[in-house]
Amino acid sequence: MKTLSTEIVIPATPAAVWQILMDHAAYPEWNPFVKKITGQPQVGQTIQICVQPAGQKPMEFQPKVLVNLPEKEFRWLGHLWVKGLFDGEHFFQLEPVGEGHTHLVHGEKFTGLFSSLIVKMIGADTLKSFQAMNQALNDRVKSQVG
């Protein structure tokens, strides 16, 4: 198992950050990493996701939503090729900090037979992509709330 994780503090409440994070229809307007999410983001449902990590071609997945706790956490589990070869549990965790700020932890836990090898190949670009999304989310929230 290998986890890649990033963090950012956004100067807005968890409610404001959550509203932007869960407005999947608007992702093409601002999100440099997750290009598209369609489907119902309810626990147990399968959603369709298109991601484009830095320096790579777009990839499409059909992960299953594991957690959708408003203003706290959104998490899904996807598989590349066949379950058990390279699985990714992607997560966004929000926690209030200080007066009107949100600590966002954005990452992915990789498991499966080829997880170590693939993470070595894509890990640096994936972290850059998470950080780029975090900054874009921060900018979007500030432009919408500010």
> What is the end-to-end distance?
39 Å
Number of strands: 8
Gyration radius (Cα, Å) is 15 Å
Low-confidence sequence ranges: none
The topology string of helices and strands comes to EHHEEEEEEEH
Side-by-side strand order of the widest sheet: 1-8-7-6-5
Total number of helices: 3
Architecture, CATH level 2?
2-Layer Sandwich
Summarize the structure.
By secondary structure, this protein is an alpha+beta fold.
What's the SSE blueprint?
Layout: E1 2-10, H1 14-21, H2 27-30, E2 34-38, E3 48-51, E4 59-61, E5 64-69, E6 73-80, E7 86-97, E8 101-111, H3 115-145
Antiparallel strand pairs: 1-8, 2-3, 3-4, 5-6, 6-7, 7-8
Helix pairs in contact: 1-3
Please explain how this structure is put together.
This protein has helices spanning 14-21, 27-30, 115-145; strands spanning 2-10, 34-38, 48-51, 59-61, 64-69, 73-80, 86-97, 101-111. The protein has a five-stranded antiparallel beta sheet with strand order 1-8-7-6-5. A three-stranded antiparallel beta sheet has the order 2-3-4, with no helix packed on it. Helix 1 packs across helix 3. The protein has a single domain (2-145), classed as START domain (Alpha-D-Glucose-1,6-Bisphosphate, Chain A, domain 4). With 146 residues, the chain is an alpha+beta fold. 29% of the residues lie in helices and 40% in strands. It contains three helices and eight strands, in the order E-H-H-E-E-E-E-E-E-E-H.
Distinctive features:
single chain, 146 residues, alpha+beta, Alpha-D-Glucose-1,6-Bisphosphate, Chain A, domain 4, five-stranded antiparallel sheet, three-stranded antiparallel sheet, 3 helices, 8 strands, 40% strand, globular
